Amino acid sequence: MGRKGFIVTIDGPSGAGKSTVAKLLARSLGYRYIDTGAMYRGVAVAYMRNGGRTPLDRLLEDLALTFEFDDGVRVFLHCEDISGQIRDPEVSLTASTLSQDGRVRNYLLKRQREIGKEGGVVLEGRDTGSVVFPDAEVKFYIDADLNERARRRHKETTAAQELDRVREDMAKRDKNDSERDLAPLTVPEGAIRVDTTGIGVDEVVAILKSHVEKAKEKWKS
Ligand code: C5P
Fold first, then answer.
1. Is the CB of 196 under 6 A from ligand 1?
2. Domains and CATH numbers, the chain
């Protein structure tokens, strides 16, 4: 076990309910919630603002990107709070494109391992159980059917987007994320799969929590 507790990972496609569930699970375990997607989104905002003036390697080398993980996540670029902007639809697609680049992945991989190494964390993303912490004590893979995922994302988005457009963007990102060569979205070895289609948030959290509790009992004995 990590020094402050278990490392729990939750991976899956966008809109599967990972963030909500990960946040609530972390809260009920007294763990920190690490939203790794927000980290990719932070890099995307920096990249979009730079407008291609600086080569990517240099941009990453000098990147003044910081994160505050607590009950949610706050992202700062040069001390400016960009937590609102990271959720823009264009940022989602740019993050998905940039996440195919090994330099971006390595940059964030190091930062994610540094943040999570002490344990007592719930990490959520696409590769947290397959690449970032393959030895995590508990690994989940959460999914739901595309229509339901699009409906959920459409409900929570602040941008004026048609449901069909949300579904299209989502399918495009799923394809990017699953078919890329580096750290593709996949079910990590040993992960517990949970399909959240038609299941409420509280029920999903209860299912996940029971698995973590079981793992704790096993670890003690
Ligand atoms: O989870 P979220 O939708 O915020 O992630 C934004 C994008 O960042 C994803 O579409 C994916 O391309 C990328 N990502 C990733 N690996 C992670 C988390 C996110 O490649 N662990």
1. no
2. 7-216 (3.40.50.300)
